[in-house]
């Protein structure tokens, strides 16, 4: 029951590493318990590309400025107001100081990517992507004296009144118990447990794909909720995007995302359009498409574009289907050919003047006379060859999590738990009630990881 460690951090992704480095710099002896093998360390952070950052002027790779109010307005659009404004603004405001901190801890940035992302002003891209960020942080943590156990699956945290008394985990076929002074939970959501997803969503969840790590199964989250730790969020809300239907069940990552929706029409298996593909720029709206596809028959959708749109977006890792006619494409995708032809013709007839078409801005090039309308980038699909992708719901992380305050501390109904903090996806539902904003998960993890590490170290010391 004794432990040489002041702080145990559960999880091995961005939030956990930010907490570990911050606590170690404050003089605490830190142990990271990472369920995944070393090659798969880092949770969903391995698959990230960028960090959404407020800044009052040019900062690192970021150009111009991105104010707190604009950032918050962007968040309100995608969450429809379902957010804790105090915590959201804390994350936004603190993000500006995080970028230089990230650089000091080994992260390198690159100029933003071109195409439909268009995030040069708002999002700082990691050189080498999320895997490089994770590796850099592990190197820095090691230099700071942080110990890491891989394939260490935490099974139970014993809540004794207002404190965590011990942590149980398995490693190398053995059961272990330690009693650190403080604990930080940064072990993500429950999305890789498809049985839990199905209990929340119903049978459609069996058709979902999991974009991220197969190791985020919500074991620690469930354990703490069963003991009365306060929760936040809706189990059916999650960061869910439309991904290539050919993606693997788990761990397909960012390369399976499809950015072509704004330049396409999207139909269901009956070859019917069901939503405005041009509602907003992709970084602000892409996360709604997972839920839209989930609501369609068999939880599947199909993208149709023509030759003039093929090079306007970042390609998926899988090449599109290609055909000389709409009917041929329909057969390849398993859609009713006559119905898809009619849908495309109706859409084409509803398109008007396209002279103001601008692929990276809201251009007002809209349809008239059809439902749903397409409100931007509405160009006729007329130029062969024609291309198609299948879409499935790809869940990144779930929003049911641990409720925290602005010091990242967890509580029961009776008050704060003295030595328990949470950071990252396991508490992101405190801020993300629904929807998602590109790069904001990394912002939440970085800000609250640093806060949790600071507070845990102060308590332990």
From TrEMBL:
Q: Known Pfam families for this protein?
A: FAD_binding_2
- Which cofactor(s) are needed, names only? FAD
Q: Which residues form the FAD-dependent oxidoreductase 2 FAD-binding domain?
A: 6-433
Any single GO molecular-function term of the entry would be: oxidoreductase activity
Q: Does the keyword Flavoprotein apply?
A: yes
The UniProt keywords, alphabetically, are:
FAD, Flavoprotein, Oxidoreductase
Q: What is this protein called?
A: Tricarballylate dehydrogenase
What species does this protein belong to?
Answer: Actibacterium atlanticum
């Amino acid at each position: 029951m004794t432990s040489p460690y002041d702080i145990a951090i559960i999880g091995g992704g961005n939030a956990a590493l930010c907490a570990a480095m911050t606590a170690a710099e404050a003089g605490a002896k830190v142990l990271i318990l990472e369920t995944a093998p070393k090659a798969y360390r880092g949770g969903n952070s391995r698959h990230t590309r960028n960090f959404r950052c407020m800044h009052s002027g040019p900062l690192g790779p970021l150009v111009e400025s991105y104010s707190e109010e604009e950032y918050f307005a962007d968040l309100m659009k995608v969450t429809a107001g379902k957010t804790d404004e105090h915590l959201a603004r804390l994350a936004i405001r603190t993000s500006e100081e995080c970028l230089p901190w990230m650089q000091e801890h080994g992260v390198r940035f690159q100029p933003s990517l071109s195409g439909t992302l268009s995030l040069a002003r708002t999002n700082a891209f990691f050189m080498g992507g999320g895997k490089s960020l994770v590796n850099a942080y592990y190197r820095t943590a090691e230099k700071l004296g942080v110990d890491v156990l891989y394939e260490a699956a935490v099974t139970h945290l014993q809540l004794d009144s207002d404190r965590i008394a011990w942590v149980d985990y398995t490693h190398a076929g053995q059961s272990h118990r330690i009693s650190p002074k403080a604990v930080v939970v940064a072990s993500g959501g429950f999305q890789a447990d498809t049985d839990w997803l199905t209990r929340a969503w119903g049978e459609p969840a069996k058709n979902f794909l999991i974009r991220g790590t197969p190791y985020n199964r919500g074991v620690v989250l469930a354990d703490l909720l069963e003991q009365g730790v306060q929760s936040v969020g809706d189990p059916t809300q999650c960061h869910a995007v439309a991904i290539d239907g050919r993606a693997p069940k788990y761990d397909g990552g960012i390369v399976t995302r499809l950015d072509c929706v704004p330049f396409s029409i999207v139909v269901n298996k009956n070859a019917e359009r069901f939503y405005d593909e041009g509602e907003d720029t992709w970084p602000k709206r892409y996360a709604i498409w997972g839920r839209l596809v989930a609501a369609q028959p068999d939880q599947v959708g199909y993208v149709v574009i023509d030759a003039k749109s093929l090079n306007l977006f970042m390609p998926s890792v899988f090449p599109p289907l290609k055909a000389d006619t709409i009917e041929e494409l329909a057969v390849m995708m398993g859609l009713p050919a006559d119905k898809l032809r009619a849908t495309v013709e109706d859409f084409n007839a509803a398109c008007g003047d396209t002279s103001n078409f601008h692929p990276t801005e809201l251009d007002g090039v809209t349809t008239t006379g059809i439902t749903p309308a397409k409100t931007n980038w509405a160009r006729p699909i007329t130029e062969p060859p024609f291309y198609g992708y299948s879409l499935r719901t790809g869940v990144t992380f779930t929003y049911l999590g641990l409720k925290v305050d602005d010091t990242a501390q967890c509580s029961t109904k009776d008050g704060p738990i003295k030595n328990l903090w949470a950071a990252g996806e396991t508490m992101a539902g405190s801020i993300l009630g629904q929807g998602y904003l590109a790069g904001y998960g990394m912002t939440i993890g970085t800000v609250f990881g640093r806060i949790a590490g600071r507070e845990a170290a102060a308590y332990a010391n």
